[in-house]
Amino acid sequence: MPKNELLEITAAGIYCRPGDFYIDPWQAVDRAVITHAHADHARPDCRHYLAASDGEGILRLRLGNDIRLQSVGYGEKVALNGVSVSLHPAGHVLGSAQVRIEHKGEVWVVSGDYKIESDTTCAAFEQLKCDTFVTESTFGLPVFKWRPQTDVFADINGWWRSNQAAEKTSVLFAYSLGKAQRVIAGLDATLGPIFTHGAVENVNKCYLQAGISLPETRHVASVEKKNAFVGGMVVVPPSADTPAYTKRFTNVSKAFTSGWMQIRGMRRRRSVDRGFVLSDHSDWSGLIKTIMASEAENIWVTHGYTAEVVQYLQEQGLNARQVDTRFSSGIDRTEA
Q1: DSSP label at 123?
Q2: pTM of full prediction above 0.85
């Protein structure tokens, strides 16, 4: 690695030596810049945190209300030991950010997780230009191609209607931070009541406090009669797909929302009736479009199908390299 590179990979994660800070460190460090509050990006016990103000409530919910957190608005510049740092919308979940680093006329951008299709539950992705772009690649294969979310929500609401006609309870699995709120915002609340798992309900409160509009929901635990769920929609995290939890509902139809539903066989492996392809990450074309639009001379590829994306970029004549993390590709990343 050339000595003048702004970022380097260490045992604790991506490190900016001139600024003496880490981005989404893998262990507790003195100063952490956080792209968003998912567990593989926001680690506990760091001494100082810097994150986007939109996600402050979620970050405190996940890491503790007493963390030492400096929250900043999107685009606001902060000087860390002479290095200029600013956070810009990543379009992934509420408060998600790309990290822009500028030092001695050189600009690097670390994408975190990102999605270029905008939705109503978080700030829209902002395209940045830079000298070096560190991109995720969770869905970095051409097979991953998303339909417009309006079409997916129409399918979900249609599935809900058909379940109502059959006097069934619709149970929809969606990761509790981000995916669940996006799904709830896309539901047709005129169809019937929407119920939530406690983990979803707690994050909902953070979204509402941040000014995000969501339909009214009821915590499952607040409902005493089993029959009250029939005809309703219940949004729960994948971890709640256990007999002990789902036995409280009667005549259930189950569905799963994830980009991984694009893969044949995943719905069967999840043992659900329906699979809806909906992700808070960019699909293949979104990744490539974003990388090209960054106009970066150097591209670091991490978090996902790194080898495949690097090979493709190199075939296009770009200077791309693979960067391994502790959270590499894996189809068990249910939040995707």
Answers
A1: P
A2: yes
